[in-house]
Design goal:
Layout: H1 3-6, E1 18-20, E2 27-29, H2 132-139, E3 143-145, E4 161-168, E5 188-196, E6 203-208, E7 213-216, E8 219-223, E9 226-230, E10 233-237, H3 249-260, E11 266-270, H4 273-281, E12 285-289, E13 293-295, E14 300-302, E15 305-309, H5 311-319, H6 329-347, H7 350-353, H8 356-369, E16 371-373, H9 379-389, E17 397-401, E18 404-406, E19 413-415, H10 417-428, H11 436-447, E20 462-467, H12 474-485, E21 490-496, E22 505-508, H13 513-523, E23 530-532, E24 543-547, E25 570-572
Parallel strand pairs: 3-16, 4-11, 6-17, 20-21, 20-24, 22-23
Antiparallel strand pairs: 1-2, 4-5, 5-6, 7-10, 8-9, 11-16, 12-15, 13-14, 17-25, 18-19, 22-24
Helix pairs in contact: 4-5, 4-8
């Protein structure tokens, strides 16, 4: 519903106030919701080219806009409220937008299609347009790459979304000759796995250190000469998953999947110009410094305190590392997360959403800075993504960093598996980092009865393992893991179950409850997987574990932890943090 049909505007997003005038082809910002409803009317002399409807504020680039709203007698848009007469504002239409009369759109289509693209801060920017010609204009800005592994049908509303945001160190773009490595083929210098929850209530942005030592798997790249397989490598820097040996973003997607266990749906990639042009488009981003910073390498020179930065200065801020924290890439990741949080807040502010000039410039900047996979290489699909992301409150967007430990060489880092694996599991299981307290309480309430009580020793657990999943050899793999890794020696492989199961189940007798609790702890079974019987087990009778379609691998918990491990670095997007 739009503001008119609800009868009030106190809960209306400014982005929803752009309405198409079918007589002029212009989009108009309607913020006054208290005026009476006007009846459809046209004066006899209004003509085809006539005067522009009051308040028409078209999103024209680099054209100052007058905030005053006026009305042209006899030219009110049918179904819209009238305005008091004032001075007409000037301005030009966006490129190629026609001004011929249009069929009146249905009320459900009157809302502007504002939320369209994203890069670096997973930005959702405004096009404020719904016409074919303007869509084509923004489509022409986009660069696309056809990669193996990316989705081909955009986004599904009933599924979680995983997008890989990549910032390269390639010196492409005007004015970027002095940045990055002059010989770089474009490595994955900044990489963020952006997970949007299935219910769109929260999102997690996981930064992956460029100097993380990991394995890069084989990957397929598509060229004009056909598909080429690039061999993988072991124990090398993560950033070499892109550019090195001709690897494309699809190779980085495969590397992230191998590292985190999370399947990446799409990628968005940008160069240095993205930060410069987008911060200028929104009129600058506020940052905070806990101390003076003078970095000769990034050329950032700012005193302590709060500052509004844009353009070259904004790029210097996100590139600085020698003057913050411990002076390395991990410190730079923290300052980038603080910056992106502030950029998200600025883009979602009414100051940005109510300005047609800012929205147009932001759409121009984002689409020109973007390289995306062909599956989302159209403005219509980026718009769909934007509408999904719009639902996420900044307070529920959490930036985190893959937990690592220093390597012996002093230049690279290694995965901290004890902390990283639970964090990866949270993303795999769509668990929010910002709502963990409620989820933790819910989990405690649910498991209070079944999982409360003593645990048997692993050596006392008797269990027969059946495979009811689609994974061949799952029962044998689980048995091997239980016996060799966890000491559950009284276990047996019973082969395929009589029928397939969607969910893993553990059936046990009342006098086996302590064994069931222990096995649930070892395997990460949820309370819903436990099926207590009514008769006690006799003699050497074993519990029955049937692996279901939710089986993810031997030793991989079926449910993620209720909270992130202690010590995981994270920043919430609605809070300002001062760089130290």
């Amino acid at each position: 519903m739009d503001a008119q049909s609800r009868g009030r505007a106190d809960e209306i997003d400014p982005a929803d106030q752009w309405v198409l005038n079918p007589h002029t082809g212009n989009y108009e910002l309607r913020l006054n919701q208290s005026a009476p409803q006007s009846s459809p009317s046209r004066s006899a002399g209004s003509g085809g080219g006539g005067s522009r409807r009051a308040g028409a504020r078209t999103p024209a680039p680099r054209s100052p806009q007058d905030d005053r709203e006026t009305a042209t007698p006899g030219r009110d848009v049918p179904g819209q409220r009238s305005r008091r007469t004032g001075n007409a504002s000037g301005g030009t239409n966006p490129p190629t937008v026609g001004r011929r009369k249009r069929k009146q759109p249905k009320s459900r289509k009157k809302k502007a299609l504002l939320w369209t693209g994203g890069v670096m801060a997973f930005v959702v920017v405004a096009g404020a347009v719904g016409t074919y010609l303007v869509y084509r204009h923004f489509d022409s800005n986009l660069n696309t790459v056809d990669v193996t592994g990316a989705g081909s049908d955009g986004f599904k509303k009933d599924q979680a979304v995983n997008i890989l945001i990549i910032g390269t160190d390639k010196r492409s773009g005007a004015g970027n000759d002095g940045y990055g490595d002059k010989n770089s083929v474009g490595h994955a210098d900044t990489t963020i796995l952006f997970h949007v929850s299935k219910d769109r209530t929260n999102a997690t942005a996981l930064s992956i250190p460029r100097d993380l030592i990991t394995d890069i798997p084989d990957c397929q790249t598509k060229t004009t000469e056909g598909t080429k397989v690039i061999g993988g490598t072991t124990k090398t820097r993560f950033n070499e998953s892109l550019g090195q040996e001709g690897r494309d973003p699809g190779c980085t997607m495969r590397t992230v999947k191998a590292l985190t266990g999370v399947t990446v749906d799409h990628f968005m990639m940008a160069d240095f110009n993205a930060v410069k042009t987008m911060t200028s488009a929104v009129g600058g981003v506020e940052v905070c410094l806990a101390k003076d910073i003078k970095d000769k390498d990034s050329k950032l020179n700012l005193p302590a305190g709060k500052h509004v930065i844009e353009g070259e200065q904004a790029l210097a801020f996100v590139r600085t590392r020698h003057s913050v924290g411990f002076g390395g890439d991990l410190s730079r990741i923290e300052i980038q997360q603080q910056f992106l949080s502030s950029l998200i807040r600025k883009m979602k502010s009414s100051d940005t959403l109510s300005s047609p000039t800012k929205m147009w410039d932001l759409a121009e900047a984002a689409t020109k800075a973007l390289t995306v996979d062909t599956g989302i290489g159209k403005i219509s699909r980026l718009r769909d993504l934007g509408l999904e992301l719009k639902q996420v409150n900044p307070k529920n967007i959490t930036f985190a960093t893959v937990p690592v430990v220093d390597n012996t060489d002093g230049a690279t880092v290694l995965l901290n598996e004890s902390k990283a694996k639970p964090l990866f599991s949270m993303i795999q299981n769509d668990t929010s980092l910002t709502e963990v307290k409620q989820k933790e309480q819910d989990a405690k309430n649910q498991q209070a009865n079944l999982l409360k009580g003593p645990r048997a020793q692993a050596s006392k657990v008797r269990v027969a393992v059946f495979n009811g999943s689609d994974t061949q050899g799952a029962a044998l793999a689980t048995l091997t893991w239980l016996q060799n890794e966890e000491g559950v020696l009284k276990s047996s492989n019973e082969g395929n179950a009589p029928q397939k199961l969607a969910k893993t189940t553990l059936v046990y007798a009342p006098n086996q409850a302590d064994q069931a609790r222990k096995l649930a702890d070892l395997m990460g079974l949820p309370a819903t997987a436990l099926k207590p019987g009514t008769k006690n087990a006799v003699g050497l009778e074993a519990m029955t574990l049937t692996l279901g379609a939710d089986f993810k691998g031997a030793g991989v918990p079926l449910t993620g932890p209720a909270k992130a491990p202690e010590g995981v670095q994270k920043v919430e997007a609605d809070k300002q943090v001062c760089a130290k």
